[in-house]
Amino acid sequence: MLSPAEAYAQSVPLAVLNESDATTLEVLAEAIVPGARVAGIRNFIDSQLSADSENSLLMIRYLGVPAPFAGFYTAALRSAEKLAKTRHQKHIAALNSEELSQIIDDMAQGKVKDWQGPPAEFFFFVLRSDAADIVYGTLDGFERLDIPYMPHIKPEQSW
After folding, report:
1. How many domains does the chain have?
2. What's the pTM value of the predicted model, to 2 decimals?
3. What domain range includes position 94?
4. For residue 124, is it within any domain?
């Protein structure tokens, strides 16, 4: 068992997401929650998409969206990529920080026209939650925030 960060560092192959979708996911998540890339956001979401949906740790599970969840992510990621190409004639990974920030702001505010898939603002919320969870929802994340971790039941081993 590897943590998402270890899986990312070791370039563990993805099971559900293709490379293009994983790159788009990584770019968006890193821009929304810095540190998401090296925390292994691509591997975390991919592994959760390939797992039993009843045990999924993805935010989408708790929001009443029926499983399977892969279609939700891929439709939204492809819409974000299409948006970058329409607005800037380049892949989302090639956008400068200002261009990427504008796309993310428009997604968050639901100001995206011709978006296909789940609503952009809903996808932003879900992705931000997943990214924050992978970056800060661990013992190390709490330590980086200088917040004492006080679990009801402490994990038997570090995540």
Report:
1. 1
2. 0.90
3. 4-140
4. yes
